[in-house]
From TrEMBL:
This is Nuclease SbcCD subunit D. Gene3D superfamilies: 3.60.21.10. The gene is sbcD. It comes from Streptomyces gossypii. Residues 267-353 form the Nuclease SbcCD subunit D C-terminal domain. GO terms for molecular function: exonuclease activity. Residues 1-218 form the Calcineurin-like phosphoesterase domain. SUPFAM superfamilies: Metallo-dependent phosphatases.
Length: 385
């Protein structure tokens, strides 16, 4: 069986205030054309269809058009909701849409009910595990703990139980939206940390032939059977070096995986350049970035006059300007943003506790209280969607 694996469309998202709707439309046209040219048997979309719970009308219309194109192609499509989606909104009319061959899996209680596809070698059971917010789905899945690994293990328990009841030789595929240990992150993914732990081991997907993952925006192979497709477009400058692609996966009669990366259309290359303003304006090697979306980091000790206007004269598509003056180690004048860079919400809160108590850091019980508070806020946000 031939499968096209994609994820993290984030329809409606912009790039530093530049609309990406046209680029997303081009990608979806490319997706449908690729599915037809490669004669795929199924398209898998592993979550984050939309960029936010209530997407703009233009993004909804784009999604509607994609559904019609995929249905007209006659290729079964399985989609799950991600942590950016509103599972309940995305799942509206899913029963009706399923009649057109587009299977939306947004409810956690349906984890053990696959979409069963067939080829010359028999059945392939495709299980959709939508993003599982631990605080909300723990009771639904009867998970032992309120954690990502516990709810995923509970969901995979349902998958394995259903698979065990099927004829011997039935191959299996799981779609999931999660942060798996070993994956490389970017600045674009929303934090899904719960109880201080976000990552789950790849072993949680043992027992299935292929796990089609979403959430991380870089295309990557965790194991031969566990892969991220990544996002089709770059959504932050942290993705500058990522090659945007989809996985074309072939499952043979025994469930052996062969995978090939297929490139996605690039609306405009990204470039990160760094130096003093004069260096950036004068360096001949920067000529290649004239048509790129540019993030410029200025290292001048003092802020230059009209830096954005001067940069735009050479780089017409400069979008982001960062000031990072060269300083010696231990400089006491670091900005607040620089001091917080790379630190989680939990770490920032714990640092604040230590600061207001003149160096007496949060103890174990206080850290637990802070963790529970952050988990409750995330759960409330999910319910609101």
């Amino acid at each position: 069986m031939r499968i096209l694996h994609t994820s993290d469309w984030h329809l409606g998202r912009s790039f530093h205030r530049v609309s990406l709707l046209d680029a997303q439309r081009v990608f979806l046209e490319h997706l449908v054309a690729t599915a037809e040219e490669q004669r795929v048997d199924a398209v898998l979309v592993a979550g984050d269809i939309h960029d936010r719970a209530v997407p703009p009308l233009a993004a909804v219309e784009l999604f509607d058009d994609a559904l019609h194109r995929l249905a007209a192609l006659g290729v079964p499509t399985v989609m799950i909701s991600g942590n950016h989606d509103s599972a309940r909104r995305l799942g509206v009319a899913s029963g009706l849409i399923e009649k057109a061959g587009v299977h939306l899996r947004t409810a956690p209680e349906g984890c053990g009910s696959p979409v069963v596809l067939s080829d010359a070698h028999g059945d392939v059971a495709v299980y959709g595990l939508p993003y599982l917010e631990p605080a909300l789905v723990q009771p639904v899945l009867a998970a032992e703990q309120r954690s990502h690994i516990a709810v995923l293990e509970a969901a995979m328990g349902r998958v394995r139980a259903d698979l065990a009841a099927r004829p011997e030789g039935t191959r299996s595929v799981v779609l999931a939206h999660a942060f798996v240990t070993g994956g490389e992150v970017s600045d674009s993914e929303r934090d899904i940390t719960v109880g201080g732990v976000a990552a789950v081991p790849a072993a949680v997907f043992d027992g299935v032939d292929y796990a089609a993952l979403g959430h991380l925006h870089g295309c990557q192979t965790i194991t031969e059977r566990v892969r991220y497709s990544g996002s089709p477009l770059a959504y932050s400058f942290s993705e500058t070096r990522q090659r945007k692609s989809m996985w074309l996966v072939d499952l043979d009669a025994r469930g052996t995986v062969q995978a090939e990366r297929l490139d996605c259309p690039v609306p405009r290359p990204l470039a990160r350049i760094r130096g003093t303003l004069e260096e950036l304006l004068e360096a001949p090697e920067n000529e290649r970035h004239t048509d790129s979306w540019v993030e410029a980091t200025l290292t001048d000790p003092h802020r230059p006059t009209e830096p954005m206007a001067r940069l735009a004269a050479r780089f017409p598509h400069v979008l982001s300007l960062v000031f990072d003056p060269d300083r010696t180690e231990g400089d006491a004048h670091l900005s607040y943003a620089e001091r917080l860079r790379g630190r989680s919400e939990q770490q920032i809160a714990e640092d604040f506790v230590g600061h207001v108590r003149h160096g007496r850091e949060a103890d174990t019980e206080e850290r637990r209280v802070l963790s529970d508070a952050f988990d409750a806020v995330r759960a409330a946000e999910s319910v609101a969607r």
